[in-house]
Amino acid sequence: MHLARGGLDVVAVDGGIFVMGGFDPAKPAFFDSVEMRRTGGVGTWHDVAPMPTARTNPAAAVLGGKIYVAGGVTNDDTDSDVVEVYDPRSGRWSTSTRMPFARSAGAAAVLDGVLYVAGGGLGDETLASVVAYDPAARRWRTVAPMPTARWALRLVASNGHLYAIGGRSTEENSLATVERYDPKANTWTTVAPMHNTRAVPGVVAVDRGNDHFIVVVAGCPVANGVVGDFFTTTEVFNVKTGRWRVLPAQLPRGRCSLGSALEADGSVLAISGGVKINGVITATPEVEALRL
Q: How far apart are CA 16 and CA 37, in angstroms?
């Protein structure tokens, strides 16, 4: 990409992959920058209209063909409740209804035409709460909270459910925990944990016929607030069997706070994120692909 960045979020819509926000430890301010590339082809990145609000660790998802970016941390070090919407057809940003309260490092996903934002942090508080946005009514409502409060998690929709994956706990430990939300029952269920605890990994849902998978790429382990060596591994969850498998393929070097998306041929992309070079955390603009 043009910018190396961690704390980003990634969505795919209308044959394009969009990367929003984030930061580079070598630069003084959070990014309002948005880059996109078409799926397929040579994969060249292009800058599009920047977000009205620069931020890191936002939560983004696609609803009705538009990109919704919720919350995050702004350059005045404030957790945000701002929701901004990008229309890839017009190339313009607009402002949507604010969330009921601010949060950063939460996660977003869309299921059955509803935008959900889960977890995150508000000041020193780690959140279990989940809010849902109805675009027709232009209103937010609170739904059942996750059993586990967490920030730096990922949220993904697969086969009629939401899955909250990994993150960091109130005690500042990374989590292997995975919880599934049933929107019809408004209940959460704990499913099989990942093999590794992972904060801010890349996550993407993959559908192959009647089979559904969730791919989790890299991320970082955290113990009592101390961040360990970033993971190079990828785990795949089979939604039908409820089991995880660690793939033999590994990234060339560990990554944390990265994004993921699907390429046109079904490959999983590991997009930007943080890396460690000689023990120092920095950001990388690199994008790598995994053929499943």
A: 6
